[in-house]
Amino acid sequence: xxxxxxxxxxxxxxxxxxxxxxxxxxxxxxxxxxxxxxxxxxxxxxxxxxxxxxxxxxxxxxxxxxxxxxxxxxxxxxxxxxxxxxxxxxxxxxxxxxxxxxxxxxxxxxxxxxxxxxxxxxxxxxxxxxxxxxxxxxxxxxxxxxxxxxxxxxxxxxxxxxxxxxxxxxxxxxxxxxxxxxxxxxxxxxxxxxxxxxxxxxxxxxxxxxxxxxx
Length: 215
Ligand SMILES: N[C@@H](CCC(=O)N[C@@H](CS)C(=O)NCC(=O)O)C(=O)O
Known about the structure:
Shape: globular
Number of strands: 4
Distance between the termini: 42 Å
Order of helices and strands: EHEEEHHHHHHH
Bound molecules: glutathione
Structural class: alpha+beta
Radius of gyration: 17 Å
Number of helices: 8
Number of domains: 2
Strand content: 5-15%
């Protein structure tokens, strides 16, 4: 099989890159990573060299190009069915996809106000209207899924749904907006996963600062 090559941007800031990366890393899927740092003042011109949309993440597999974080996860889940990216139970799988899509298309107030920033020291900021509504919905999803599965992840073992929420775990953590014991327990499970620790260590070692993402 051709090597899978995942194109990503800064580990400290690129929330969409984080999702397929942690899904593949946590589920033991072999891949090569290619990191190209953001260059926002210039409009990220180098991304066009490997990405049809000029955005990351993108997966190259032979001549195939796959963009959009969730499509990448779906592709590798089909390539490696034994890796368990999605829950085994069909109903659970459907709900995992529902909450993954809800994440992909929603929670804009939280995403706009609180950019992912792995190495940000914990501290509150003034939050615009709507952010705490997003947080409440996210906490309900996490609490409901962990109660149904028994945890520690949303569907018991780590799945693509956890990967889709990984950047949100960072946001609730570093902007100090999570309070409930159950939310904090889920965040601890995520932040102590070996794949998270690997991404975090690399984020901390990066030299780049992106002013647009320093809230
Ligand atoms: N819906 C896309 C979002 C991709 C996206 O917006 N990526 C950001 C980085 S996290 C990007 O490439 N931004 C560069 C730009 O807009 O120039 C996905 O799920 O992959």
